[in-house]
Specification:
Oligomer: heterodimer
Radius of gyration of chain B: 24 Å
CATH topology of the largest domain in chain A: Dipeptide-binding Protein, domain 3
Number of helices of chain B: 15
Number of domains of chain A: 4
Helix content of chain A: 25-40%
Distance between the termini of chain B: 15 Å
Strand order of the largest sheet of chain A: 8-9-10-1-11-19-12
Largest sheet of chain B: none
Number of helices of chain A: 18
Helix content of chain B: over 70%
Strand content of chain B: under 5%
Shape of chain B: globular
Number of strands of chain A: 21
Largest sheet of chain A: 7 strands, mixed
Structural class of chain A: alpha+beta
Largest interface: A-B, 45 and 47 residues
CATH superfamily of the largest domain in chain A: Dipeptide-binding Protein, Domain 3
Structural class of chain B: mainly alpha
Shape of chain A: globular
CATH class of the largest domain in chain A: Alpha Beta
Chain lengths: ~525, ~325
């Protein structure tokens, strides 16, 4: 079933079946009419029927990336531990649905003024905190203000830089005023820092108590070790099928794997790609291999020789064999990159831009044109950047050799890589988490004056379009602008993007999900606790 | 005053000086690490203004020697400060973890020390036999393998293949003592395997060393059976080196378990120290290191006192 139209039809049929709108007989009838083999259709029906969510049980999740010194302050959320805990006991204004569309969380509806500089969020009147207090506009204002102002220590302050004012309009309406239009503001609200927390009298928030308005109540937590949750019966969303959640921090990949195999945990948030093929043979374990917008980038500083010459930059981009890297380094669990930082699962992904091939001959001729034949560059990387980061760099060095480019791989210390190497050394290997929209990504790392313009790329047209697109509410015009920007980044920019790495995680036998999972974070956009369930 | 007490007091005083020197070393070692706590806490996403705000909040804008003296003045009166990252009291952050580490160390020691010494005596008795060779090879194999590798082997055999013990030593609140022993058996066994060889071989070597002495020959000539020659005549004189090795290994059980903790996801002090270093959380790093240093100092002291007490010549100097 590679035909997209057929896949789409089957998805809709499965959805209708799941919601009980379609009998087995009708399901089979439609499926057979669509040209699906009878055995396949029967199998699909069984899977679909099994996809009826069921209440009960305690899910034990083995989570990677947890630190003893983490805290509940949403401004300092950094590790997967805190991101997943936050999505379990706290809520956000908006969320990313399993199909990667934007959906409601605490806010049920939102609308913008014509220039997208004023946004109004309507809150869900049923939303309550774990101590029974209703979620009001005041709480939302205080929660967002936690990340604003001169004294804020929040790592997300940059995202709200353009916000001029946030005011409550009655109990259930919040108005956000921006200095300039931003059509993506509702998407920004899904950022993991912007949890909605109870306001204190003085306008600060109570993040210390661990109370939230999410699907589960935090019963106890030992940072870097474990957390225990129980169901919040007054939750405003649908789902939260488990009675209790036990989150175990398992930083060691082998501990996670053995934990899953021996049944000490029911699901794990990350598996080692090296062991994926072996794990697939275990009939009791299901692997979710989900394309994401997380990227590996190789920024070249456009303000430094030799990368100040666009021909050199493009030669570097032509000298990388992305297919080979995906096959050998990512074990196939990645989407190919095309040197613009928008992944296929992000909104406004331009399908029309042709994939850049591996073409050492053309790279060689570009270098000749630039008078830079026999180019030698240093590529800085560290093991912690990505599993196989150093191998990736070495493989690239081999590929680039065919274009007459000598790449010296410099292995930097893991510790302090992002403070001492990234943005400092002229050519580095970097790992980026997924961002929800092109605007967020471009504003963060490609805008001329962005603090993390990692390639120091200055392109007038790109920056002009970035501003226009930001406040453009017409979808078609906006898509056209992003397409042009992607083309500019691809052909003029200073960043090689070899791949977008998949999220690869695994579930034990009884853990079910709806088939489609959000790709903003591991495990259904970090919302596994409220979306998954145990089969009977 | 008895000479033993004088030695103990002297050594304790020197130990305090050592701790002081170590605290200076640790403080400036943490200072020299690239990046600082603000960057480590806020991560890649922080801006300069954020970092400055957090540094000011944590008092990092003051020069390093001033911060060290502030910490020292607290430490001298028993206040080790609060974690810079979580704001938790250092004593609270550490106590639970340290108890876990001590429990695991004690569990391993209770198995390892008797096993090692008894095995050492048996192999000394049966030296140059097949049993001696096999025990030595096995013990040396265990000590030569990295701990995490031993851990994985034990997990494979006992957790994955046999299903007899859990692979993850998770400690949740209400465990009975037996359950606790069962759940932490594999990490304890890993550590036993790591330390047994050293102690066993020292026992064997110390005893065999004495077997050439004239008084052992005398014992043999008077017709004492071989086990009695070793246990009654050789062993009492072999205690000093054995005690030294036992003390060293006990210290290792407390301080060297980070890898075992990682493999079995055991919430001990090693993992806490690693996390604190990565976040540049100086008060926690300092406290952990001082605990480790104190462990070494105290156990070494105990070994020396033990050596004196088992040696009549040192116990009753002329």
């Amino acid at each position: 079933m590679t035909d997209p139209a057929k896949t789409d039809l089957m998805d809709r049929l499965a959805e209708a079946a799941r919601q009980g709108q379609l009998s087995r007989r009708n399901f089979m009838h439609h499926a057979l009419a669509a040209g699906v083999a009878a055995t396949t259709a029967t199998g699909m029906w069984t899977r679909t029927a099994a996809a009826q969510p069921r209440r009960g049980g305690t899910l034990r999740m083995g989570m990677h990336d947890g630190n003893t010194s983490d805290s509940h302050d949403p401004g300092t959320y950094l590790t997967r531990q805190m991101i997943h805990v936050a999505h379990t006991h706290r809520s956000y204004l908006t969320l990313i649905e399993p199909d990667n569309a934007l959906g409601p969380d605490v806010a049920t509806a939102w609308s913008a003024s014509a220039d997208a500089s004023e946004w109004t969020f309507e809150l869900n009147p049923n939303a309550t905190f774990h101590d029974g207090r209703p979620v009001t506009a005041n709480d939302v204002v205080a929660s967002l203000n936690h990340h604003r102002g001169e004294k804020t220590t929040s790592a997300a302050a940059a995202l709200l830089k353009d916000v001029v004012d946030i005011v409550a309009d009655g109990d259930h309406t919040v108005v956000v005023t921006l200095a300039a239009g931003n059509a993506d503001l509702p998407w920004l609200m899904t950022d993991y820092h912007f949890t909605i927390l109870p306001a204190n009298e003085d306008g600060s928030i109570d993040w210390q108590s661990g109370i939230g308005c999410g699907p589960y109540k935090l019963e106890e937590m030992e940072f870097g070790v474990r957390a225990h949750f129980s169901r919040h019966d007054g939750w405003h969303g649908t789902g939260a099928w488990f009675d209790e959640i036990e989150l175990l921090i398992l930083n060691d990949p082998n501990a996670r794997l053995t934990g899953l195999i021996t049944g000490d945990v029911d699901a794990i948030s990350l598996i080692e790609l090296k062991t994926m093929a072996l794990l697939q043979r275990n009939p009791n374990i299901r692997i979710d291999n989900v394309p994401s917008a997380a990227a590996i980038t190789m920024p070249m500083h456009c303000n430094k020789a030799p990368f100040d010459n666009v021909d050199v930059r493009n030669a570097m981009k032509l000298a990388i064999n992305r297919e080979e890297i995906i096959e050998k380094i990512a074990f196939g669990a990645a989407t190919i990159g095309n040197d613009f930082h928008v992944a296929p699962n992000m909104p406004y992904w331009p399908a029309s831009i042709p994939q850049r091939p591996y073409d050492p001959d053309q790279a060689r001729s570009l270098l000749r044109k630039a008078g830079a034949e026999g180019l030698t560059v240093n590529l800085s990387t560290a093991d912690s950047v990505y599993s196989g980061a150093v191998d990736l760099a070495v493989l690239y060095a081999q590929q680039a050799k065919r274009a007459g480019i000598t790449v010296n791989v410099v292995r930097e210390p893991n510790d302090g890589y992002y403070s001492d190497v990234w943005l400092v050394k002229p050519f580095t290997l970097v790992s980026w988490g997924a961002r929800p929209t092109p605007d967020v990504m471009f504003s963060l790392a490609y805008k001329a004056d962005a603090a993390w313009n990692e390639s120091f790329w200055q392109n007038e047209r790109f920056n002009e379009l970035l501003l226009q697109a930001k406040s453009e509410l017409d979808e078609a015009r906006r898509a056209a602008m992003y397409e042009e920007m992607c083309q500019l980044a691809r052909d003029d920019g200073g960043t090689i993007i070899p791949l977008f790495n998949n999220f690869v995680y695994a579930r034990g036998g009884g853990v079910e999900h709806g088939g489609q999972v959000a790709s903003s974070w591991e495990c259904d956009g970090a919302r596994w606790a409220s979306r998954w369930w145990f089969s009977a | 005053m008895s000479p033993v007490i004088i030695i103990v007091l002297k050594r304790l005083g020197l130990g305090l000086l050592t701790l002081f020197a170590i605290s200076i070393l640790i403080f400036f070692a943490v200072e020299m690490l690239p990046g600082d706590i603000a960057q480590a806490v806020l991560g890649q996403g922080a801006t300069e203004e954020n970092l400055a705000a957090l540094r000011e909040k944590l008092g990092l804008d003051q020069p390093a020697p001033v911060r060290y003296l502030q910490w020292l003045s607290g430490a001298l009166v028993g206040d080790f400060g609060t974690s810079l990252v979580s704001g938790e009291r250092v004593s609270e952050a550490i106590s639970g973890r340290f108890t876990n580490t001590l429990f695991l160390a004690a569990y391993a020691a209770v198995i390892a020390v008797p096993v090692a010494i008894i095995l050492g005596i048996i192999v000394a008795l049966l030296r140059e036999t097949l049993f001696d060779r096999v025990s030595n090879i096995l013990a040396l194999t265990a000590i030569s393998s990295p701990e995490f590798f031993l851990g994985y082997i034990l997990i494979l055999v006992f957790a994955v293949n046999m299903g007899a013990f859990p692979a993850i030593a998770r400690l949740s609140g209400d465990l009975s003592f037996l359950e606790l022993l069962h759940r932490t058996f594999l990490p304890a066994l890993t550590m036993v395997l790591v330390v047994v060889a050293h102690m066993m071989r020292m026992t064997r070597a110390a005893i065999i060393n004495l077997l050439a002495s004239p008084y052992i020959e005398m014992a043999r000539l008077k017709g004492a059976p071989p086990w009695k020659v070793i246990v009654h005549h050789a062993l009492p004189n072999a205690w000093a080196p054995i005690i030294n090795v036992v003390a060293l290994n006990l210290a290792y059980l407390v301080t060297g378990v980070v890898l075992v903790e990682v493999v079995f996801v055991y919430p001990g002090i090693g993992q806490l120290l690693v996390d604190a270093v990565s976040k540049r959380d100086f008060p926690i790093v300092q406290a952990c290191c001082l605990i480790f240093a104190a462990t070494f100092i105290l156990l070494n002291l105990a070994a020396d006192v033990g050596a004196i007490l088992t040696n009549p010549r040192l116990r009753h100097p002329k």
